[in-house]
Design brief:
It is built from 11 helices and no strands. With about 260 residues, it is mostly helical. Helix 3 runs antiparallel to helix 9 and helix 5 packs antiparallel against helix 8.
């Protein structure tokens, strides 16, 4: 019985060490102090972090499905999503290069991949096919540059850690705000949320809100924290717009039908 219990405790210790930290594994499992405040906060932060990462694997899926089913991208701003692609590209490559814990940024990678699909769908349903090749070529080159992969062709093609931080602070965060503002403006101008997905918009808000807590707890990075604060605020505005500008045809479509 004792050997079985020792085995269970060893397994729990390993799990906590991997998912939280070695220190908390010793405190909570070895010492039996399950209510240590510092470790409880860290465990909650890690749990939220992994929850956000898991949720991010499908965060854009409702939006993708809604566009495909409707055969239309009406009400979904291409500019907003291109800006979002730029912001996430800067954020993902910076976190990867800085070797931040995956639980603090992993969702951004999944969102980035889904954004690439979503942008293709918007281009396709808007009949803007000529934009596809330039957009994806430029995106690929940007990723390669930020990850230092172009340095083998040109030693000057390198982005330092400080420059990467400046990119996120002075370009990434403002662009994120501009991108959300474009989506808000699109909704106001059309008088409808169109094919914009409420589920995706709400998950964007929830994820950014959770990231505020995990960033405070795990990463001393005011640039990243500011980015999530701005994102959570503007995503909340978009969620509120679903109440006053419900999904449906745009103002012009409605007026045309009335005229007929």
């Amino acid at each position: 019985a004792n050997s079985k219990m020792d085995g269970i405790l060893a397994l729990l210790h390993t799990a906590v060490a991997v998912l939280v930290s070695d220190t908390c594994a010793d405190t909570m499992i070895t010492d039996g102090d399950m209510f240590d405040s510092a470790c409880l906060k860290q465990t909650l932060s890690k749990g939220l972090g992994y929850g956000v990462v898991l949720g991010a694997t499908i965060v854009k899926v409702p939006q993708i499905i809604k566009i495909v089913r409707a055969g239309s991208a009406q009400g979904v701003s291409l500019i907003s999503h291109l800006i979002e692609l730029t912001v996430y590209t800067i954020s993902v490559t910076r976190s990867y290069n800085a070797e931040h814990p995956f639980s603090t940024w992993g969702e951004a990678l999944f969102v980035l991949l889904q954004l690439s699909i979503l942008i293709f769908l918007i281009i396709h349903y808007n009949g803007q096919h000529a934009l596809a090749v330039p957009i994806y070529v430029l995106w690929g080159l940007a990723v390669a540059l930020l990850l230092g992969q172009l340095q083998q062709f040109d030693p000057r093609a390198v982005v330092t850690s400080d420059q990467h931080g400046d990119l996120q602070q002075y370009i990434g965060t403002p662009l994120s705000a501009v991108g959300r503002a474009f989506q808000i403006l699109t909704i106001f101008l059309q008088g409808s949320t169109g094919q914009l997905s409420f589920i995706t918009s709400f998950l964007n808000f929830a994820g950014a809100s959770a990231r505020i807590f995990t960033t405070i707890q795990e990463v001393d990075d005011p640039v990243m924290l500011t980015s999530f604060l701005v994102g959570a605020t503007l995503n909340f505005v978009i969620v509120l717009l679903f109440a006053c500008c419900p999904s449906g045809k745009a103002k012009q479509d409605t007026k045309t039908k009335k005229d007929k």
